[in-house]
Amino acid sequence: MTTIGPAEPAPRRRRGRPGYDQPAILRTAIELFNRRGYDATSMGDLARELGLTKPAIYHHVTSKEQLLGEALADALDELTSVVTEASGERDGVSAYQRLREVVRRSVEVLVAHQPSVTLLLRVRGNSEVELAALERRRWLDDRLAALVADAVAEGSLRDNVPPALVSRLLFGMVNSLVEWYRPDGAYDHAVVADAITAIAFDGLARHEAHQV
């Protein structure tokens, strides 16, 4: 898993206690960061949540910042891959089709990584780790805006809305899922992905002047 932050070699860690591994600690840390707030959560809080001592936590991780970096990378890595793939031209696949694909797959990524995406949307740039995550988010916005501009240029989308604004609105619609979507709720993630894609692009589709 990629960690966001300064590229420093990780110290060699001892093997952890049976029953606890780094992924389990990371999942618990993300839940605690979301519930209490990252700044208000200490490694002692995490140890108590897991029923471990602080030294036992350090069998697996070196710092709270490492956990934050891994959590934010979990939120960003797959989405970065989705946007990178869609940004590349493919024979027979229009920019409009690639843009629709990004929106639909972004919903799938959010659902699969909802706790870490929730944490990502709350960072404010208070540390190097958070600043690096925000820079990656800006890159995603820029790539999506470029794809919107390509779709406008090919005549697939209306040209009276700035591409950067469209990008923010699309990601905003997807990101709003963290506030209400529940995997065990009334709507399957595929239904939600279809609905968001249909609503977004039916509203963005270019119409002739005489049409409303």
Automatic annotation (TrEMBL):
Q: Which domain of life is it from?
A: Bacteria
Q: Which residues bind DNA?
A: 42-61
Q: Which residues form the HTH tetR-type domain?
A: 19-79
Q: Where is this region: Disordered?
A: 1-20
Q: Which UniProt keywords apply?
A: DNA-binding, Transcription, Transcription regulation
Q: Which InterPro entries match?
A: DNA-bd_HTH_TetR-type_CS, Homeodomain-like_sf, HTH-type_TetR-like_transc_reg, HTH_TetR, KstR2_TetR_C, Tet_transcr_reg_TetR-rel_C_sf
A Pfam cross-reference name: TetR_N
Q: Does the keyword DNA-binding apply?
A: yes
Q: What is this protein called?
A: TetR/AcrR family transcriptional regulator
Q: Which organism is it from?
A: Nonomuraea antimicrobica
